[in-house]
Amino acid sequence: MVEEGAYWIAWAQISGVGPVLLRRLQQHFGTLATAWNATKVELGEVEGFGFQTLEKVVQQRSRLHPEQLFTKHQQENSHFWTPADADYPRLLLETPSPPPILYYRGEIELQENLGQKPMVGIVGTRQPTEYGIRWTRQISTALAKNGFTVVSGMAEGIDTESHIAAMKAGGRTIAVLGTGVDVIYPHKNRDLYKQILTAGLVVSEYPTKTPPDRTHFPKRNRIIAGLSRAILVMEAPVKSGALITATYANEFGRDVYALPGRVDDHPSQGCLKLLNQGASFILKELDELLTMLGAIPQIDGVEASTAPEQLSLPTLASELQTVMDAFASEVLPFDLIVQQTGMTAGAVSSALLQLELMGLVSQLPGMRYQKS
After folding, report:
1. How big is the CA angle at 215 (ends 210 and 220), to the nearest 5 degrees?
2. In what order do the strands lie in the sheet with 332-333?
3. Which of 126, 246, 322, 358 has the most Cβ atoms closer than 10 angstroms to its Cβ?
4. What is the rounded CA–CA span in Å between residue 311 and residue 211?
5. Closest of 43, 13, 9 to residue 25, by C-alpha
6. Residue 335 near residue 328 (C-beta atoms within 8 A)
């Protein structure tokens, strides 16, 4: 049986089908495996699949073999997640455009992936003033010391300062790259890159050996916003990648904060624009900021009592129903679910993740599961 993750990889190879359409495919068909075998007419029922896209799918799908692609991909990129994997960052799954493949290097912390440890994005100009650098260092240090993971893009300027300050304070940091996870850009950050690998993660939606490309960096900003519960914009001119990140954050329902500056300072114009549009102020009293950030709800396990008994279960795809049928009233460990269903571990992980997102199953400590 071909794992669901293989179909995420296969679909990602088809030109014209990006993260948004892939998300719609999954929501429409339940699994991308089902979508892969759908007819042209059935695919045409999905919003965004026009005539030209359908023609590309039909032509390219016949030449691709998901299982072979998956094996080849594992050989070339040993560390990656697809939305079918239980470890795929949950907060990214909340967005309309989660990367179909997310590559990573470094030290994984499962609580981050599960959305149970607060992550805050810090972004800004590549040419900060002393004022921007000072406040970035202070805020990153305070966040790290209070248990937040700092997310940024490892660019020069504000990004670099936020990563360094977080690690100096003994905290974790995540760098979202616009290159492959094995390509260091800018090259002057090679030492920073090595430090991040020991105190956090570098992630990217681009496969290994992908060089820098100016079109990649605006796209990667949606991942910074998607991973984070809030975005802090430190210093940014009006035309800035940081404002792109803030726009994504607003679209994703994240909180946006901006550091106020003088009205005649060019690096502060973007922040002032955000504040005028309703962003929250970053003020001198950092305790207040930490309190506000700490009040942002994290993802918790769904309590069994929260699922109303009177609601009928939705119609499930066959693999999801097979996993649901394995549950009785007791709590089941992952290995026993695999044994009872006769499915592969990867297929069970994918099914459990989807059932959790649907509120039908909840995960307990120790890889144990129960009906919600």
Report:
1. 75
2. 332-333, 368-371, 361-364
3. 246
4. 51
5. 43
6. no
Range name among 35-39, 156-160, 332-336 with the lowest pLDDT average: 332-336
Three-state DSSP class for residue 293: helix
Rounded mean pLDDT, 96-115: 94
**183 φ, ψ to 5°?**
-110, 120
Which token pair is 76?
């070339």
CB under 8 A, 24+ apart: contacts of 276-279: 279/233, 279/246
pLDDT digits (tens, 9 = 90+) for 18-72: 999 999 998 899 899 999 999 999 999 999 999 999 999 999 998 999 999 999 9
For the chain, helix (H) and strand (E) counts, in that order, are: 18, 12
Predicted TM-score of the model (pTM): 0.78
Provide the mean pLDDT of the chain.
87
Length of the chain: 372
CA distance 226 to 98: 8
Q: Which long-range contacts (CB under 8 A, 24 or more apart) does 64-68 make?
A: 64/10, 64/13, 64/14, 65/10, 66/2, 66/6, 66/7, 66/9, 66/10, 66/36, 67/2, 67/6
The rounded Cα 300 to chain-centroid distance in angstroms is: 17
Query: E strands of the chain, at which residues?
Result: 80-81, 102-106, 119-123, 149-152, 173-176, 200-204, 230-233, 255-258, 280-281, 332-333, 361-364, 368-371
Count other C-beta atoms under 10 Å from residue 161's C-beta.
23
Closest C-alpha to 271, from 356, 262, 169: 262
Q: What 3-state class would DSSP assign to 267?
A: helix
Tokens of 219: 């796209």
Round to whole Å and give the CA distance between 91 and 103.
Answer: 16
* Unique residue bearing structure tokens 């005649």: 264
